[in-house]
């Protein structure tokens, strides 16, 4: 069964209120050695996230010459536009002038739920380009935070425990025919050998094996008695 966020998230979460001052936020980040904190409104719901990047705009926009007019790099402006934050220069400049978390934070926040799978959380982080996700309950209240490093914990399993679960998956997939399949595990990589009745059984077994937590990769060396897999080009011609 895939791990859920509540198994890997941190529940002792630092947060700041929307009215938290700039230096207060800096103190929180530095004292806790974190790069971002959720911002919580008066109703207890997460309203945004403020990061060291948000705070550094104040330093970024300081003039080093009286007539200097600084523009953020094109990449940063495009990223702001794609995220719906408005023109990059104006948004970054607004944060440079901001004094409280309400104006500094990135909003709306990208959040997840405790019951979301680790796979879903990883995909959300990648899609939205974030390194952490506040974890909220059904009312939007903060219950934890999950980072990219937390998600890597699913790979922190020994080969023996992976082997037990792989065997269980094979038996669920193949039934009694699983006795004809061997699954060797080394450093999280699984090698399937033996014979199955149909080629599709072998491919399905490999997919199920790959879904086991802690599995780094699968080498499918299974043989089959009947090739029941129709090549893609044959399927296309039959349409």
Automatic annotation (TrEMBL):
Residue stretches making up the BON domain: 158-226
Keyword Magnesium included in the entry's annotation: no
In terms of Gene3D superfamilies, this protein maps to: 3.30.1340.30, CBS-domain (3.10.580.10)
Q: Where are the transmembrane segments?
A: none
Entry keyword Transport: no
Q: Which UniProt keywords apply?
A: CBS domain
Q: Which residues form the CBS domain?
A: 9-68, 105-161
Q: What is this protein called?
A: CBS domain-containing protein
Tell me the classification of the organism that encodes this protein. Answer: Bacteria, Bacillati, Actinomycetota, Actinomycetes, Streptosporangiales
């Amino acid at each position: 069964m895939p791990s859920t966020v509540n198994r890997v998230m941190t529940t002792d979460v630092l947060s700041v209120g929307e009215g938290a001052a700039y230096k207060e936020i800096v103190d929180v980040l530095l004292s806790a050695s974190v790069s971002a904190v959720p911002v919580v409104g008066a109703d207890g719901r997460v309203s945004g996230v403020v990061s060291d990047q948000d705070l550094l705009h104040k330093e970024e926009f300081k003039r080093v010459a009286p007539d200097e007019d600084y523009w953020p790099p094109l990449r940063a402006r495009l990223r702001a536009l794609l995220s719906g934050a408005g023109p990059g220069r104006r948004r970054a400049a607004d944060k440079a002038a901001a004094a409280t978390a309400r104006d500094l934070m990135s909003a709306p926040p990208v959040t997840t739920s405790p019951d979301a799978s680790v796979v879903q959380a990883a995909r959300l982080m990648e899609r939205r380009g974030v390194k952490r996700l506040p974890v909220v309950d059904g009312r939007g209240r903060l219950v934890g935070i999950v980072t990219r490093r937390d998600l890597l914990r699913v790979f922190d399993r020994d080969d023996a425990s992976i082997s037990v679960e792989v065997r269980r998956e094979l038996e669920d997939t193949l039934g009694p025919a699983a006795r004809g399949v061997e699954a060797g595990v080394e450093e999280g990589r699984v090698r399937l050998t033996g014979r199955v009745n149909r080629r599709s059984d072998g491919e399905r077994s490999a997919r199920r094996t790959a879904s086991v937590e802690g599995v780094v990769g699968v080498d499918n060396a299974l043989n089959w008695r009947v090739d029941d897999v129709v090549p893609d080009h044959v399927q296309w011609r039959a349409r």
